[in-house]
Amino acid sequence: MAYQGTRRKVFISHFREDRQEVDAFIDRFANKEKVFIPYVLGANNNDEFIQSGNPEYVMSQIRKKYLQDTTVTIVLVGSCTHSRRYVDWEIKTSLRQGEYTPNGLMGIILPSMGGSAYLPPRLEVNWTSEHENCYARYWVYPNSAEQLGEWVEDAYNARNARKHLIKNSQDMMGYNARCKVCGITH
To answer: How far apart, in Å, are the Cα atoms of 183 and each of 18, 79, 84, 108?
Structure first.
């Protein structure tokens, strides 16, 4: 039986090396259990429009071409996700306020990581382990469609209820960072 709650439009941010697990997450929770409507694209694979040194232009292009009309961003966190500049750019654009209502933001640890992983820095500064006085939430992989649906709905509601807690003033990553797991820059 499919999930009975509201299906939100969700942008999935991820590192392309985790694509098999990302596809399995989308197949189960979006296609079969109908928890959300997925929007997944290759901002992780495509440099073509982000050659600009103008951060405003970069963020407007990510919003226009990738995030479009999504309301929640889920960062699927694998071993090297924390070091990826495109993930940082997608999170920064998701949190942008003013002209746009920010996306709700949550991280989910992929199954291959067990119970913990390094968070992308911009996600980490918007989260606390107690989920108190913070904008974002961070979870271990969901056990059910209902559980994920509750998390997505919480992120959706945060867009208004917790937007004053958004921390998004850090500069965008110019390059991929050295991975804390692999010790290399991918």
So the answer is: 17, 11, 13, 23
Sign of CA dihedral 115, 43, 162, 160: negative
Torsion of CA 94, 76, 176, 162, to 10 degrees: 30
Distance CA 31, CA 40 (A): 13
pLDDT band at 50 (very low <50, low <70, confident <90, very high): low
Task: Give the three-state DSSP class for 171.
Answer: coil
Per 3-state DSSP, the chain is made up of helix, strand and coil in percentages (nearest 5) of 40, 15, 45
pTM greater than 0.90: yes
Separation of first and last alpha carbons in the chain: 40
- What tokens appear for 137 in the block? 């939430």
CA distance 86 to 12: 12
Q: Is the pLDDT of residue 99 over 70?
A: yes
